[in-house]
Amino acid sequence: MASEFEPLLPRGGHRPATGGWKSALFIIWVEVAERFAYYGISGNLISYLTGPLGQSTAAAAAGVNAWSGAASMLPLLGAAVADSWLGRYRTIVVSSVLYIAGLGMLALSSMFPSPEGQQCNVSAHGRGASPPSSLQTAFFYLSLYLVAIAQSGHKPCVQAFGADQFDATDPTESLSRGSFFNWWYLGICGSATVTIALMSYVQDNVSWAIGFGVPCITMMLALVVFLLGTKTYRFYDSGDSNGASVLSRVTEALSAARKRSPESGSLVEHGERKENDAMVEEVRSIARLFPIWATCLLYGVVFAQPPTLFTKQAATLDRRVGSSGFQIPPAALQCFSGTSMIICVVLYDRVLVPVARRVSGVALGITMLQRIGTGMALAVAALVIAALVEMRRLSTAMDAGVVDQPDAVVPMSLWWIMPQYVLIGAADVFTMVGMQEFFYDQMPSAFKSLGLALYLSVLGVGSFMSSFLIWVIDGLTKKGGGTSWLADNLNRGHLDYFYLLIAALTALELLAFLYFSASYAYKRKTANVH
């Protein structure tokens, strides 16, 4: 697949002059800007859906999860296009242009007038006072899903392209690549933290048009930074010059496997045994990833909670800080997770890894699968704590006599909700970074973008599963005139039951993950660098 590694501009050529941290920093800053743009939309999206678009809490949470799922599943297609046809560099450029177009359209959609010709007022429980026009709603969703399509090429390729700047067969660069994934996630966390704190305030208190417009400008800057670093980038030779697509290569490998003699393993018809054996091994290595992928899916459900139900839960609390009575936007409380991630990434890379390396003898300190499993355990703990906090919130609302006043603030400090955000942040540092490195590292060299798309698909499937769970739970608990666990008036709902349900499912998944990871054999590394 020669096209995978050809830039739009002439490449540098030799390892000393290209790649390494110099190139990786360009790419990390591009991802920082892209995450600023993405979280500028997703971090407070549920407030826009329940506010100006007038949707119910359950419908808005399901809508956010469906969009997040699409944005995380489509990278499977984008990675296939990059690995088969456009190449990572070109895919990043094209998807960046689409990204900018989608964000610009999103900002424009928020400026459409309501049917009464004025902005909708939003009540404390998030519902808009006047419905949006059908044109505004349709244009909004068109813009939103264009962003999801753009992310399908940008997300898997940027990270894979960044990791490509380090040679896995070089001992020094191999260790640097392990650190790259940690510092990559640090950049994402820092960007997300600043974005959510800043943009949620702008969107809630200034203007949704500005709140959506600033991410568009940021994405333009990201594209400029990426192009500026072109001559420093390192490009790899996949060793496949026939331009075969991912699907055709897999098909060839399956065909080669079928032609093996069960007695001797020799090829019946073809003499190109070595090439076919390599393709068969590629398919086997991908197939071995499936049990690990499947037993990570419920973590995607956990990941979907902070920007949706955690945010709606936080909106009911007393969020005033300081003597001035400044009120923190509910979406901004996700900054607790971001801050936790930043601290944990530094501690992990600079403290835990060196200590664990001395004890275990493993170059990365702990194995990638051990890292993922540790994060899953922390996620279970976070959900249990979230349920306990919700129980106290419901009890406080009852004692204060505000159960039937959805607009009233429950007299309970925002600091009560901080531990669940902090634990989710710590869990992400272990599981999310672990999955990124694992699926990139264990994929055949020709399918690295597809490997990162597999990691993103965990979040995508998890978001769809969360949306499905919300739909089922909302329907079942409303049957016979009952009150939904996810009622618009959360004081009458039972988010605590919902959190405990997800915690139990995640704990069962963790047991399955431990079973499959115990027998997993890591692949050896080879590379071909230019």
Helical content (DSSP H or I, runs of 4+): 55-70%
User: Which structural class is indicated by helix and strand composition?
Assistant: mainly alpha
Q: Strand order of the main beta sheet, please?
A: 1-4
Mean pLDDT: 82
State the low-pLDDT regions, or none.
1-15, 115-129, 238-244, 263-268, 526-530
Write structural notes for this entry.
It is globular, with a radius of gyration of 24 Å. By secondary structure, it is mainly alpha-helical. The chain has helices at 20-42, 45-50, 57-73, 75-86, 88-109, 134-163, 171-205, 208-228, 246-258, 273-287, 290-294, 297-303, 306-314, 335-360, 368-400, 418-442, 448-478, 495-518, and strands at 317-318, 320-321, 326-327, 410-413. Mean pLDDT is 82; it is low at 1-15, 115-129, 238-244, 263-268 and 526-530. The protein is built from 18 helices and 4 strands. Helix 3 packs parallel to helix 6 (134-163) and helix 16 packs antiparallel against helix 17. The strands form 2 sheets. The protein has a two-stranded parallel sheet. Strands 2-3 form a two-stranded antiparallel sheet. Helices cover 67% and strands 2% of the residues.
In short:
The protein has 530 residues and is mainly alpha-helical. Helices cover 67% and strands 2% of the residues.
Helix-strand layout with pairing:
Elements lengths: L19 H23 L2 H6 L6 H17 L1 H12 L1 H22 L24 H30 L7 H35 L2 H21 L17 H13 L14 H15 L2 H5 L2 H7 L2 H9 L2 E2 L1 E2 L4 E2 L7 H26 L7 H33 L9 E4 L4 H25 L5 H31 L16 H24 L12
Parallel strand pairs: 1-4
Antiparallel strand pairs: 2-3
